[in-house]
């Protein structure tokens, strides 16, 4: 087979790889983790991250589990998952949580399963953006990535159609399309990579929400929060407002 002219660079080397002669890394060729890394490459000049900015809680699960924004400017910064009962303070991604405008529900009684959708809202390839979520099956110690939306020309606006939820041992990606919602159900068991074939006996599902109208009955985040929040007025000092 002839060697392709496209080279898929590691996420940590994406910026340099995009400039290498003879090695073109296309957005469409990246995996979900690389999309998350790439989403911040166009923002270095626009944002001046401030390590002294006061920490914001952008999503609270309960009294000891929450997502925090640190080292940021205008809501763009480093997003950390925290579990104070387990002494977990794990960086998940760098970006702007509120670019994702859909609903987020985390209601897993075991505390093992967590999900955080992201939205790049940046320049993508010719075929549009691919948006991803980070998920964990070990209480937030480690995260994997999966794309939930492809070929989007309006990432933030399109995200309003989504609800991404964790309930017990399942992860739901729910997309509202016209008068119905369509659901992708992923299994969550310890260590699973849902981007690959599932282990024997483990299955996912896809269905119309109207065919199972009670599948989300009683599912809600303990804190009651179902959207990211951020105070964009908290900014790094001496930053000129962009026009």
UniProtKB/TrEMBL annotation:
Protein name, UniProt field: Tli3-like domain-containing protein
Protein's organism: Caballeronia sordidicola (Burkholderia sordidicola)
Record keywords: Signal
Highest taxon in the source lineage: Bacteria
The organism's taxonomic lineage, starting at the top: Bacteria, Pseudomonadati, Pseudomonadota, Betaproteobacteria, Burkholderiales
Record bears the keyword Zinc: no
Residue ranges constituting the Tli3-like domain according to the UniProt record: 52-174
Signal peptide segment: 1-21
Transmembrane in keyword set: no
TM ranges: none
